[in-house]
Amino acid sequence: VPQGVIPFKSGVIFTQRARIEAPVSTIFPRGSSTDLVLVLSLCSHRINNAFLFAVKSKKKKLQLGVQFVPGKIIVYVGHKRSVYFDYNVHDGQWHNMAINIRGQTVTLFTSCGKRRVHADLHFKKDEALDPHGSFLFGKMNQHSVQFEGAICQFDIYPSAKAAHHYCKYLKKQCRQADTYRPNLPPLIPLLPRDPNASPSTPQHLDPSLQGLKNLTTVTPSL
């Protein structure tokens, strides 16, 4: 179990001590483009401006990323190039969604595909991800604020149909995740606190959280 990661019944909790980084080549096949679908199931525990993930080139240029700020989801497709959606992840609730990046359009799907919002990039994005780059989970770089929350599913698909019908791709436990809301208050004394961070919404402890026996790995799949 990586430092700063706590497993619970329907996924894992990322605390501010989490440090997850991997070579791009271990996450994406060589030659992968930024045309892809993200299927996500998550619950934010702290209001901040953290990235859910960031893909950076060998020269440290941001190629792909998703950032959660209060009231908005920002999708980066290229260095300093982004689109945003009016959507609040920081409400203490579980959110199941899909983000489809296809050509010059980024689409956010919610309500099992019944709701969708499009945003145009208005620029030419990079053709391929740098295989010598790095993938960071929960951060934009090692010095930025960390995403703190529970993750049930983080999957990457090359097919656009996964976005339109993303609920078919959700794991069973992610559909029921709201039932297993993890309770952070008993864990907080064990973790160093960020004095500049806003307080999170309390949840209810999953009684099955005892030790580290129920680890559910969060590995992007293709």
From TrEMBL:
Residues 190-222 are annotated as: Disordered. GO terms for cellular component: collagen trimer. The keyword Signal applies. Residues 211-222 have a biased composition (Polar residues). Gene3D superfamilies: 2.60.120.200. Its main location: secreted. Residues 2-160 form the Thrombospondin-like N-terminal domain. It comes from the Eukaryota. It is found in: Secreted, Extracellular space, Extracellular matrix. InterPro entries: ConA-like_dom_sf, Laminin_G, TSPN-like_N. Pfam families: Laminin_G_2. Keywords: Collagen, Extracellular matrix, Glycoprotein, Repeat, Secreted, Signal. This is Collagen alpha-1(XXVII) chain. It comes from Tinamus guttatus (White-throated tinamou). The lineage of its organism: Eukaryota, Metazoa, Chordata, Craniata, Vertebrata.
